[in-house]
Design brief:
The structure is a single chain. By secondary structure, this protein is an alpha+beta fold. Helices cover 51% and strands 17% of the residues. The protein has a five-stranded antiparallel beta sheet, with no helix packed on it. A four-stranded antiparallel beta sheet has the order 4-1-6-7, with no helix packed on it. Helix 4 packs across helix 5. The longest helix is centred in the middle third of the chain and has 31 residues.
């Protein structure tokens, strides 16, 4: 459709925005932005990356992102039918909708009345157990004074045992420094984080991206991460992430979001260990 690129350019010029300003904001090169305006789609990476460029451009201009993508598809898609990427995304969306409907039916048919009854019985059981346990504790607390009264009654009739007890308590006093707080601090080292401790990586998608995640040498995900999807992995030694649209992803290490690691359409491999993101090896000149 001839009006797609011209419409983007007209909207940008009406708002007095240059291609350089759009490039800085969207992290899309000026060359690719110009290719969109001139509808030279063969100069773009192709697939889901092109749609990511259109969404980012439309968002910066304040346009409807979904309508902009639809206009782009109408201008770039051949008349014979949709692309394989679009069919894959449509199938995934239909599968998600079926799963949502199935969960809704399960929730509707779930026997909440029986669950409430069972929870009530459990609460009553704990209440009865708590009352009996409190009585047992109270009985245990009241018994020691009766047992302690016997030595007090026998002490006056056995004076030699008293002198013997006084001679035996002296060594106990000389051994007491072994249990001082200082000694316990020397024998129990402070807790420190080991370099190889387990860690968590979470990847969320603002835009669709092909993604491959390997944790401790095992592939845990490989495919298209559809926005606003997310993947979370736990590892002990290493996590390797290879992304095909790095500018459309957010990456978190142990719950802390990392700075952006690339542009829209950029393909890159990131490696993590227990200390965080590892620097890429230097390329030979």
């Amino acid at each position: 459709m001839a009006s797609f690129g011209a419409g983007l350019k007209r909207e940008r010029e009406n708002k007095k925005i240059t291609l350089d300003q759009v490039s800085v904001s969207t992290k899309i090169s000026v060359r690719m932005l110009r290719a969109l305006e001139e509808e030279k789609f063969d100069q773009l990476p192709g697939g889901i990356f092109n749609k990511g460029f259109v969404r980012a451009y439309a968002r910066h201009l304040g346009l409807d992102e979904e309508q902009a993508v639809a206009d782009y598809l109408a201008a770039s898609t051949p008349a014979q039918g949709p692309r394989p990427e679009d069919l894959e995304l449509r199938a995934m969306a239909e599968q998600k909708e079926k799963e949502r409907q199935r969960q809704a039916r399960l929730t509707k048919d779930f026997p909440w009345g029986w669950v409430a009854t069972i929870l009530l019985l459990i609460a009553l059981g704990f209440s009865v157990w708590g009352v009996r346990f409190g009585r047992d504790v109270q009985s245990a607390k009241s018994s020691p004074p009766q047992a302690a009264s016997e030595p007090v009654a026998k002490a006056p009739s056995e004076p030699p045992a008293k002198s013997k007890l006084s001679t035996e308590t002296a060594p106990v006093k000389t051994e007491s420094p072994q249990f001082s707080p200082a000694a316990s601090r020397e024998t129990v080292p402070p807790t420190q984080s080991a370099p190889g401790a387990a860690f968590t990586i979470r990847v969320t998608a603002d835009d669709d991206s092909w993604l491959s995640i390997t944790a401790d040498g095992k592939t845990v995900f490989s495919g298209t991460l559809v926005a606003p999807g997310a993947q979370t992995v736990h590892a002990n030694s290493s996590v390797v992430i290879r992304a095909g649209n790095l500018g459309g992803l957010n990456i978190f290490f142990n719950g802390k979001r990392l700075p952006s690691q690339g542009d829209y359409g950029e393909v890159r491999t990131l490696t993590f260990d227990g200390t965080g993101l590892k620097p890429e090896p230097k390329q030979d000149q």
